[in-house]
Amino acid sequence: MAEREKRGNVFSEVGRFLHDNIYINKVPSYGNTIFYSFGFILLTCFALLVVTGTVMVFFSQSWWLTNPIGIYFRSVHMWAAQAFLFFLILHLLVTFSTSAFRKKKLPWVIGSIMLFLLVIQTELGYSLRGDFSSQWRALQGADFWNGNYLGHFFNMLNYNQVFGVHILLIPLALLLLVTLHYGVVRKRGISKPYRKDIKYKMVEANHTVLFIRAGIVAAAILALGFFIQSPFVPQVTAQQIAQQQPSVFAQTLIAEFNHTSDTATYMDSIDPYNYNTREIYVTQPYAQYLTIRPGKNYLDVFNSEPS
Fold first, then answer.
1. Which of 27, 43, 151, 156 could be stapled to 141 by a disulfide with Cβ–Cβ 3.0 to 4.6 Å?
2. Per-residue pLDDT for 275 more than 70?
3. Cα 31 from Cα 44, distance rounded (Å)
């Protein structure tokens, strides 16, 4: 009995701390409608993204691609990202349509920056998934960054770099922006009507309804992750193409060897590649082949011939 009372006191103290230091307690009469719950729903989606993303980082790519539990976590992560983007757009639309941004320009700017970062973050996540779609997106993303003169700083084909940005840099930036955004809103309160002829009164914020709405969204995301899994299209490998279309693959290797292929001659606003395609696609694989089946090195014979 004493232990139960002790736990009750702890919960009571936590609730009092949240009420006094975290929650927005007084809102205009329209502040308890669903349209003003999108911000808290966004926090719920963000929490789901952090939890599922952290678990996926610890178990690695093979787990979230092949293990049933890993596939579920990958699916929940995907749906949470979709929900985050969806409710962020709705949140911005509500702010814009009610002219709330006129009185609170800083939160509006912060929200717009978060939207920009989230779009980048979502694309990085898709490029890390590990299937054919991620291969395609990573290559297109490399063209995007190269075309904007940023390829020297950020290379979408560098998996470790993209992984680090996705799980560390952008989440920390989003966390900082969310904290700043909420801090400004809590200090100034929910925006009052821009038009003075609109009547309203201040009322107590209904936190219970707020949590219920966020809980329904979270449950929907968890259910979608179970019933509609994140799509997966197997990767295409050089070995598969060599087995399925050997003549096409041989022509490709020749083009890489004599530097006439699109890959070898690719140039953008900058040169995005710091490796030699002949080395990657011909010289190194042939050297590995000779370790398996020793014999005459015809590449050395070829290289010794006059031009």
1. 156
2. no
3. 19
Per the document, the length of the chain is: 307
Q: 204 - beta bridge partners? A: 26
Let me know if 95 is exposed, middle or buried by CB neighbors in 10 A (0-12, 13-18, 19+): buried
Q: For the chain, what are the domain ranges?
A: 26-227, 238-304
Q: Quick check: pTM over 0.85? A: no
Task: Give the largest Cα separation in the chain, rounded.
Answer: 94
Q: Which two tokens stand for residue 264?
A: 């070898």
SS3 204: strand
SS (H, E, C) 145-169: HHHCCCCCCCCCCCHHHHHHHHHHH
In this structure, the dihedral spanned by the alpha carbons of residues 170, 171, 176 and 180, taken in order and rounded to 10 degrees, is 100
The long-range contacts involving 224-229, CB below 8 angstroms and separated by at least 24 positions, are: 224/75, 224/76, 224/79, 225/72, 225/73, 225/75, 225/76, 225/77, 225/78, 225/79, 226/72, 226/75, 228/75, 228/79, 229/71, 229/72, 229/74, 229/75
CA separation for the pair 118, 139 (Å, rounded):
20
d(CA 156, CA 141): 6
Topology classification of domain 26-227: Cytochrome Bc1 Complex; Chain C (1.20.810)
Helices (H) and strands (E) in the chain, counts: 13, 2
Q: Give the model confidence (pLDDT) of 104-163 as tens digits.
A: 788 888 888 998 999 999 999 999 998 998 989 888 888 888 777 787 788 888 899 999
Exposed, middle or buried by CB within 10 Å (0-12, 13-18, 19+), for 217? buried
Distance (Å, whole) CA 231 – CA 145 = 26
